[in-house]
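Quarterly update from the structural biology core.
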Amino acid sequence: MKIQNLSNSPKVPFDLEGYILHSEKQIELVHLLLKPGENLDEHKNPFDVVFFIAEGSGVLSIEGEKLNLTINDVTKVTSDQNRGWKNNTNQDLRLLVIKLL
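Predicted structure, tokenized:
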């Protein structure tokens, strides 16, 4: 059995601090850090995503609608929806991204 953490996991293929903690046929877990002022532009993915806020708070934009989420909040975004994130605070925003492949 292998234990994954941020130091031994592969980095995500885009320009944010993120690591793929687990990946298999139907699910992928990604740890994503958005530092103060960072954002992830709105985009679509061909799979549903569940976001869990592990630390901090930020604004999730879904199809232009803004949702303020904070620590321990969970929300699901379906594959047909544009989604993006903005850390509009002076603290780190840590997300656990659960991709339902």
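The radius of gyration is 13 Å.
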